[in-house]
Protein 1
Amino acid sequence: MSESAPTAAETRRIAEAARDRVRFEEEALELSDQVFRVARRLVGSREEAEDLVQDTYARAFRSWQQYQPGTNLRAWLLRILTNLNIDRGRRVQRTPETQPLEEGDYFLYNKLESSISDDNPDEERVIERLSQNAVVEALAEVPHDFRDVIVLVDIGEFSYADAAQILDIPVGTVMSRLHRGRRILKRQLADKTVSV
Amino acid sequence: MQPYLDGMLSDEEVAEARDHLARCSGCERRYRFEEDLRHFVRVAVDEPMPEELRRRLAGLRSGPPGAQL
């Protein structure tokens, strides 16, 4: 039996699918700066981040049909990235160890504020006591289970719900790790900030 | 304060929070610090994507429409 040529309808369908695919890839590539920005803070080095992002896009482009148009593409990509990161066996998602944290939420604020003299008119700019390097270092030192949520919510500006979906954990866990993680980060920052 | 900063409160709770911040200068200062800190962290850790990576990603594309035909 000889193969018949594709019908006009089939040809149209194939062309449409190809256009959908190209459109998807363009949309995904437009998000690459944001994906990289998050990836860079989740892993230790720039090289790792680059590899992770490249593998993520390769996987995303292969499984493009699994993405539902109109849904949050950025979260979809980050989900792939997060899973790839876990697959690398670098780490396992487990309950973070609980160390006692005596400091409350305002530890850093109080420390920075106390280092400013009373007659300083810029008392409101407490934040300027911090250095950029200290922030980068401090964030890298936060245990990864907490760091993941901080990076997604504070830096990636994802909602709690999106972060929960990306990490495959309950929203309540996102909130508690976020709260605790931010306190740890502030503690690290306070340690790195020299009081005058 | 954290859910308020994250934009996760209901409209009613937001109104209550705003009301409190308007009346309590101590909380208002701390709120402004938290907001500044969030922004500072976000900006401080920002790293641009290497152009080489951008090129490699572009190379992953499936090709112009019609290539599959």
Protein 2
Amino acid sequence: MSDYVPVLIYAAFIVAFAVMSLGVAALLRPSRSYDAKLQNYECGAEPIGQAWVQFPVGFYLVALVFLLFDLLAVFLFPWALVLRGLGLAAFWAMALFLAILSLGWLYAYREGILEWK
Amino acid sequence: MDAALLPLAPLVVVAGTTVVLILLDLLPPRTSKVHLGVVALVGIVATLVSALFLWGRAGRAFSGVVVLDNFALFFDVVICYAVALVLLLSLDYLRRNGMERGEYYILVLFATLGMLLMAHAADLIVIFLALELMSLSLYVLAGFFQARLTAAESAMKYFLLGAFATGFFVYGIALIYGAAGTTALDRVGAALGSATRDPLLLIGLGLLLVGFGFKISSVPFHMWAPDVYEGAPTSVAALIATGSKAAGFAGLLRVLLSTFRGAQPDWTALLWVLAVLTMTVGNVVAIAQSNLKRMLAYSSIAHVGYMLVGVVAGGPLGAGGVLFYLLVYSFATAGAFGVILLLERGRQEAVNQDDYGGLAARHPVLALTLALFLLSLIGMPPTAGFAGKFYLFGAAVRSGYIWLAVIAVLNSAVAAYYYLRVIVYMYMRDQEGVPTEPAPSFAGRLALGIALWGVFQLGLMPAPVLDLAQAAVAPLLR
């Protein structure tokens, strides 16, 4: 447990610093509020309408298919780097993995996920 | 098969079947999907056979994170029986509800893979992976009848509460990793035994118990069960009540009995309270239910309480009793859900006890079948329920938990009221309203037959299976 004491002290300092600097600033600064202060600072578009908007559910499916390829890439790169040392067994293991992942893609394709409606 | 993969044979068979199912689902015919169910069933039976074939072997795979021992194999058998019954019941239940889709069987097999992996897991991360694989599939299955509002409620509630419980579980893993420096179950156990007791380990265990408690629906983490069972397709409710509960107990028992054996006094006190609460709340609230699916949900909560009695008692008798009881409970509960499923009309109407008035006069065999399953859940002598309860409560007495056994027996007496009430409706009331007609399903009747065989086989000759159950927990207690 004693290993965590520095973490606790550090956390206490962080909280104290934030509270103190914000508190002191709030006490010392003059308070003059006008509309321009509430607008986006320098960058970003002015917000129009509510943040709660509805997205077409199709985006979600495309994101899932993207995830499939993403996963593929994450595993393929380290595999490609060490393949020469690992030999044929590693090749077939990855082939099986690719086959199962491609099956997922094939399934998504046949279910018509890529046809944007 | 590769020698390194041999310990994984049951998992490999299920995973392979799932891949085949995905392929089959893409091929014609696009309208009828019964053949997918049959292939899934063949895969599950092959898994069952492979588990029986591997009995007695021990091994590890993937750097020791997946383990093969009799404990895992016993759970493989329980889960495969439960899933096989569910698949048999589903075969034309889906068609009757106009929801015959290939995804159903694929998801059931994915959930099964998660359950089996949970039984074989020897690392907290693998337990987490198994838990998620099982849960995510079940969340989708719970809302499978999408057109109905209760299905959406069921899936949403199950998902939100499940995700919340998973959060606790992961936090528990993180704390245990922080204290022990490893997620491998045996090395966590060694860290617990050697060092001065780190409170973080116990806090972590407490959080794990929340996660497991949710999966096995023990009080106070049971709130989701009745709503989920009511809204989910009845076959899925049966799967959640039997298979996923068995998987939850597999993880719970391995973590408690083997890894956290050093902290036994701490968690027995906690589980003592949980067991009493779970039994009592489950049984008392079940009395007020008129919807049979809700009644079975609360009854399943109460049965979790009985099984927790066995966990508290510990030792080969208590823990072996839990394994035996899980098998007994799975047969009777899957059977009872099966009868409800056959009698359902359209979109899950006719599941109230009023609809069962005079059933015995119109369909004597079906009424008798349901009566026998309910008698097994009560624990009447010739059925398996009696043997299961006898061993559980006997183990509690022998370990010195007399009061726990007394409370459990009193609870069983309370439970008899609401089970017998259904039997009274079937045999002594007249029918009201539209008479319920069972669906003409051969597969469904076959499932009921198998469940009935299990209830009597385990009731009349419990000793061989109980010996196997005790042999199964032996590697954990060593």
